[in-house]
Amino acid sequence: MLTGDDISEYCKKYKIYFLISVTSISLIILGSIYIYHDLIFTSLIPSLLLLSPLLREKIAKDEFLKALEKEVPIFSAYLYANSLLGKSLYQSILNLKDSKILKGISKEAMLLEKNVRMRGLTSTTAILERSRLHRKDALGRIYSEFIDTELVGVSTNQRAKQSLEKVMGEMKQNLNSYVQRSVDLSEVMFSFFLLFPIMLTSFQLAFDKSINLVQVITPLISSPVFYLIISSFQPSSDYIFSFSKKVILGVAGVLVISSILLLKYLGPSLTLMVAVLELSIVFYLQLRVADSLTSKLPAILDKISDYSRVGYGLRSSLQRVINSENIDLRTKKYLIEFLKNLDNEREMTTPSWTFNATLDLLRRIDTLGYVDTKVFSELSAIIQEMLNMRSSMQSNLQLFTVISAITPILFHFTLFSFSFMASDKYVLNQLVNVYTIVIEILYSKISKLTLFNFPLVLVTTVISIILSFFSLPL
Predict the structure, then answer these.
(1) SS3 154
(2) What are the residue boundaries of the structural domains of the chain, listed by start?
(3) Residues 262-266: what's their mean pLDDT?
(4) For position 151, what pLDDT does the model report?
């Protein structure tokens, strides 16, 4: 959320952005009138600069709310565990004040505590005030649910259970809404980044015998707008990408050397495509680790629940899970690290946010002492439901990954019949490759919630390189 210092900083920067943007837009308009009318298309960049403070504020707010939505299921499970010991909603939130993983809940805990201590409000009144501010998100609905049911005498345990069920139902609705909005936006993107350039280029080649570069790259200039639109309504990603200095330097070295070697043979656009492919490998490896760790969580939690039923504590249950033969070496390594650092409150740093948050929740449950085995089975069911919803979402968006993969083929063979009219085959080929890169990045953002989808980038790169040997004739 924004603070007074943030607003002051935005105001200072906005004065500079405003001056630069107004000057740039004025020069562009004058240039488009007296020099070259197509220059008006380039006014998009300074216009975005003019709006950047507002965009930054909107993005910061949206990111906070999306992070909070992601944290609510884990928080609900912790709330349920605390309710079995008779702890209130306010006490449960305060226990998470020091959390470095549930950052949104941690900030919420500090604000609630501030209202109670400095303003002298009761915990119920403070929660009621916060529920009004969060009336449109899941946390606000948990607040309202607790307050409303408390008035009619429903127990804390029952309230926590009801909140947990409602949170999962709302998460499913949100993901379904995201899929529908993604489908609608993907259709617009398909027309804007594929059909429009093909039609525009075809008409230019048919009537002018040349390519108007400024007009053709207009969709490319506007691609950041589509990226912001996607980011504004998609859920927060589960992936946490973190690289050591050695990895960063190694990847940078490979990118520079390979680009120098390939530039002469493949040209700038295909070299850029190969660079994106090399960069996506590093992200893909961490993405695979994150997906693997998250997929193992339900089975791990079910085993902990089974061991707990026969009298084992959390630590001994985890040790038995580690010693079992059904767990892979990578997951075992992280669980051993977690067990060793269980007492010093050290957060896990795996590529999966859900895995980190779940282990942090287990650590906090361990400090509670005795906890009913229902907590582990409920947490397992929550994560399994989350995995099922994500899998369903990705399968529903798979079509757009296929469209992105065949983009080079569509461009190549559609423009083939017009290419004999072109005065510059080289420019046409470069434009096709650049559009392919932009489309694959945007569709990766939609379907995988990340910019680099290695399988998709690999397919489009290989297809583009193969098609380059069957170049468009003049």
Answers:
(1) coil
(2) 1-53, 72-154, 181-473
(3) 86
(4) 63
